[in-house]
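User: ok so my PI wants both of these folded by tonight, can you help

Assistant: No problem, let's get them done. Here's the first:
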Amino acid sequence: MKRLVITERACLIGHVLSLVFGWAGLLIVLPNPDLIASLPAIGEKAFAWSMAGGGVVYMLLGTATVAIYAYRTLGLWHWLTFMLPAVFISLGSELSGTSTGFPFGHYSYLSGLGYKIAGLVPFTIPLSWFYVGFSGYVIARAGLERWLKPSWLRDVSAIATGSLLLTVWDFVLDPAMSQMSVPFWVWHQPGAFFGMPYQNFVGWFATGCVFMTVATLFWKKFPTHLPSKQLGLPLAVYLSNIAFGAVLSLAGGFWIPVILGVSLSIVPAFILYRTANSTQISDLEKLAEIQQAKEKTAQVPVASVGVMPK
């Protein structure tokens, strides 16, 4: 278990560092051709590699981080019954979207995100749906356990909240990634909201709801208690990816999507995280009270509890 924790943290650090490296390349090096020309040969190769495969690395590291976390804290069943629906259902939506325009609108991926499945969707994209979606879902579900008793209402609320957190990630990231000097995807019919069609957000939310619903139904077969005191990692993964998109969009002058996106992502995520932690503290306090009551009972003289000594 200790090795898993070490590997998990190493992947998380690598994931965050690769995001920072992406900022440097996209915002500092790429806009300054003279800077690229002044780099030594090894520097030019490193920059060329980062542009060709940097996006792949940070998504693979994000996937590895969350996969290890899910396996370590929830077990093999709960990890795979979330990851597999997330990957395959999102892949189906992406293949449909890039070929027919449903459910996101008409768009296509360019280079920089790895090998394309069926020549349409980079293999890293469904993986990103998994690790960001899982992070948002477990934060939402753990936080809602404080307010709602186990019921269909809590399940639906967790699915809707997790899907909203997932959708907001694209809300923040999409303007920059589709309209920067070197875009990673393009909209063939630009929408009214900073180049994005409103249909895109509906498609994201609906896709998230579908695979989170499937995962929830699987999880009901073997109920689990989410590790409230260990939500720091999914929170770090989620917020670092929100920050990545926010910084790029701000650099591109997209202030409104960032302001709205941050309000709908960081604030709810922190509230849910703090609520989940307070639930953990409350549970510990109850256990302490029970233990103290047992100790007091053990100290009561036998005669005082109505039992006559022989």
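One down. Here's the second:
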Amino acid sequence: MTDSGSRFVRISVLFLTILCSLLPSFLTAQTPEQTYEFALFQKRQGNYDIAIKSLKRIQFFDELNNFPGVFKLLADSYFEQAKYEDAYYYYDLASMQSVKDSLFPDIVARKVTCKLFNHNYQEALIELLSFDENVNAYQQKEFDLLFGITYFYLANYNESERYFLKCAETIQPQIADVNKGFVRIKRLEKRYNPAASRVMSIVIPGSGQMWAGDYRNGANSLLLISALFAASVSISGTLSLFDSFFIVGPWFQRYYMGGYHKAYEITRVKQQNEKNKVLAQMVHLLNQPYSQ
């Protein structure tokens, strides 16, 4: 056999081998409908990564838009994984397809929720203010609640209370819960005042942190500043006042200033955490049915 003939045989065998290896995948290839059902099954099972891959495959090949719900399914899958930026992107695409659909308000509500979870409160408010569609009573309550939460995180407590009271409607126990909640928020702002905490730590190092309930950091700050002050006094017995200040002063300044700045931040975080607890309680109570 000539070299050219031998080469032809080798190429032919290689081609047949590749073809045979690919044939099973062609024979078992899923139709778009089967891929869609597979994605739905995986999503129900909580296998969101697998569902997302299948849904994206459908999205890529669905030129005739035979599966218009794919964007929302993708968004829901990302949302369940707490990937809110990706979820928002697909909810936004889904909303463009559902402008005249009954699902449109629910999709917009999910878009707002994604912005809230990502702490983009101003953008969440813009989404809410841009929505002017007719909604049913259940959806209206959901939007009022989202308005209340958004204004809460924007520290506009008057508007937040107004929307929470709209959610409560005429149910007296819920109205009382909302009123009590916002009274507590005002008290928390006085109890955990970051500016006051900073002043306290300027006067007595560590006292601001302790006032906010962080005794460990407060005690550390007090002991450290006291030790530096004692070291400065001790050194001044053998060195001049200027030399002792030159050696200890930068450390004293660093930890002293860092202490009262930290007191401010610790108190601010404490205040916000306590406010968040009040918010969670109000949201929970508003979602509980009252017997009348």
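Residues 22-28 have pLDDT under 50 and may be disordered. The first helix runs from residue 3 to 27. Good luck tonight!
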